[in-house]
């Protein structure tokens, strides 16, 4: 017979059950998958799409709680490629607000071949180019609106904060757009990044920061904080073409938000590195290594284990 002794409003048996439930909750591990730089190039890109099916099916089999894709879904800023990725997510049951977070990369918003055509390259009106770029960004956000706001319709753009209450831990995904327009002198390859001041200010507001106090905060942007970062002149030139121009301002914001991790892509290398107590994780390139991904395991105390995993 169970002990029926009362402890306030509870019996000893009830306390044991409650304690067991709490233990299960606190020890449950949340699994997050991170991939980047798919560079899909149309439906004829069959091997790439087969690899995407294989990866998504694996995430489902392994019971992942969330998927982050940190940009460059398309290779040439073609919305038809976005549609392919969305259809793949839908077919695997991953196209839901609480299942997947997607952000834009420079290849999603800039068609470099088109920008470098004679009639665009000599365009003396940078404001017109900026407006065209902003329309493209709006189009991307509208297309993936359900993954941003959880609604089919809306006008929300970057930045956005997605807070998900898992049984063992509360996770806040903080997503920013780091892509900015192609310019002949300042961004000749369309690969440099900037997080505009409006995004940084919006995320610094007290009413945004307050709900993050009990969350494990994970920042997401496309551009890397660190590329090569060496004394080699060749590497420095490459860094310049790929860099996040205001990376120190971005880092300061992540510190204010007490971010534990920042997930990015862009520089096609699987790597993890620490900057001022924040771990940056580069999701590499699914295009070049479609059998590899980054795995994050969060426990109930907010501790994180990260590894790069090869599909079996």
Describe the protein's architecture and organization.
With 312 residues, the chain is α/β, with parallel strands linked by helices. The chain has a single domain, classed as Purple Acid Phosphatase, chain A, domain 2. It is built from twelve helices and 13 strands. The strands form three sheets. The chain has a six-stranded mixed beta sheet with strand order 6-7-8-9-11-10, covered by helices on one side. Strands 5-4-3-12-13 form a five-stranded mixed beta sheet, with no helix packed on it. A two-stranded antiparallel sheet has the order 1-2. Strand 3, helix 2 and strand 4 form a beta-alpha-beta unit.
Describe the structure concisely.
With 312 residues, the protein is an alpha/beta fold. Helices cover 35% and strands 21% of the residues.
For this entry, give a set of tags.
312 residues; alpha/beta; Purple Acid Phosphatase, chain A, domain 2; 6-stranded mixed beta sheet; 5-stranded mixed beta sheet; 12 helices; 13 strands
């Amino acid at each position: 017979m169970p002990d029926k002794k009362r402890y306030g409003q509870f019996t000893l048996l009830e306390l044991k059950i409650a304690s067991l439930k709490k233990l299960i909750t606190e020890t449950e591990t949340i699994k997050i998958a991170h991939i980047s730089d798919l560079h899909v190039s149309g439906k004829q890109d069959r091997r790439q799409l087969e690899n995407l099916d294989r990866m998504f099916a694996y995430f489902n089999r392994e019971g992942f709680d969330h998927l982050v894709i940190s940009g460059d879904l398309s290779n040439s800023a073609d919305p038809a490629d976005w549609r392919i990725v969305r259809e793949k997510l839908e077919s695997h049951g991953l196209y839901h607000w609480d299942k997947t977070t997607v952000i834009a990369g420079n290849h999603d918003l800039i068609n470099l071949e088109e920008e470098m055509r004679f009639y665009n390259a000599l365009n003396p009106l940078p404001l017109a180019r900026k407006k065209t770029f902003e329309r493209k960004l709006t189009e991307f956000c509208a297309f993936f609106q359900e993954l941003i706001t959880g609604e089919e319709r809306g006008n929300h753009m970057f930045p956005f904060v997605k807070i998900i209450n898992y049984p063992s831990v509360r996770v806040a995904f903080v997503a920013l757009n780091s892509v900015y327009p192609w310019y002949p002198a300042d961004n000749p390859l369309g690969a440099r990044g900037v997080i505009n001041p409006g995004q940084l200010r919006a995320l610094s507001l007290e009413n945004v920061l307050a709900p993050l106090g009990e969350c494990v905060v994970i920042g997401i942007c496309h551009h890397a904080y660190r590329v090569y970062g060496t004394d080699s002149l060749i590497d420095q030139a490459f860094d310049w073409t790929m860099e996040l121009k205001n990376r120190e301002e971005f880092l300061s914001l992540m510190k204010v938000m007490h971010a534990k991790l920042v997930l990015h892509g862009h520089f096609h290398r699987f790597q993890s590195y620490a900057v001022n107590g924040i771990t940056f994780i580069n999701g590499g390139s699914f295009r070049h290594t479609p059998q590899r991904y980054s795995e994050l395991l969060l426990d109930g105390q907010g501790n994180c284990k990260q590894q790069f995993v090869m599909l079996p």
